[in-house]
Specification:
Layout: E1 5-7, E2 14-22, E3 31-39, E4 44-52, H1 56-60, E5 63-69, H2 75-87, E6 93-99, H3 108-116, H4 131-136, E7 139-142, E8 156-158, H5 169-188
Parallel strand pairs: 5-6, 5-7, 7-8
Antiparallel strand pairs: 1-2, 2-3, 3-4
Helix pairs in contact: 2-5
């Protein structure tokens, strides 16, 4: 938060502040600048939004899409990365990539594939799927069956037929993107 106070020329009891706030944990990091007027004599507070970089309404309507694979280091990461690339301006969805038994690092071939198209984020690492992930997701796509400790929900879709045959990650990416394009189209109509 940034605050700059200065006295109003006509009333010494009024202070004006410019406040810059940023929503935490946001993929889009909406920023809103407000003018806040405080009348110290009567303790009245009024605000007026004067500038918005990204509409907060769109931010509040963001839904979560979950991609799950066995190790969380290949199929689900590729799906999340390409979904973000292809849908970034069309629909307000956040993606999450998880694994049933996650690796400690992103697979080498996945990293190579994503780096080639400038999609690799070095801060990402495979994470374990939780019941909370499934519950929070508007829709989930599974490249691997759920473990017994995760309860099924109505929002699950299975993409079990997609595999990296002979470690051909280019074909794997093409198969995933072939599923993602119609998915984005259907989600954009919702």
């Amino acid at each position: 938060m940034l605050a700059d106070g200065y006295p109003d020329g006509t009333n010494p009891h009024i202070r004006r502040y410019t406040i810059l706030s940023r929503a935490k944990n946001s993929l889009f990091s909406p920023i809103c600048m407000c003018k806040l007027t405080i009348n110290l004599r009567h303790m009245k507070v009024s605000t007026a939004v004067i500038f918005m970089i990204i509409p907060l309404m769109a931010y509040s309507q963001t839904k979560k899409i979950l991609f799950v694979c066995e190790h969380g280091s290949a199929k689900s990461m590729i799906a999340a990365s390409y979904f973000n690339k292809l849908a970034k301006k069309n629909i307000p969805w956040d993606t999450v990539s998880r694994g049933i038994a996650p690796d400690s690092i992103v697979s080498f071939k996945t990293r190579q594939l994503l780096e080639k198209e400038y999609l690799f984020d070095p801060t990402l690492k495979p994470e374990l799927l939780t019941q909370e992930d499934v519950a929070e997701a508007e829709v989930a796509f599974l490249f691997y069956p759920l473990p017994a400790n995760i309860h099924q929900s109505n929002n699950l879709n299975y993409w079990l037929e997609i595999n990296a045959v002979n470690n051909d990650y280019q074909k794997l990416k093409d198969d995933i993107v072939a599923k993602i394009i119609p998915l984005i189209d259907s989600l954009s109509k919702q």
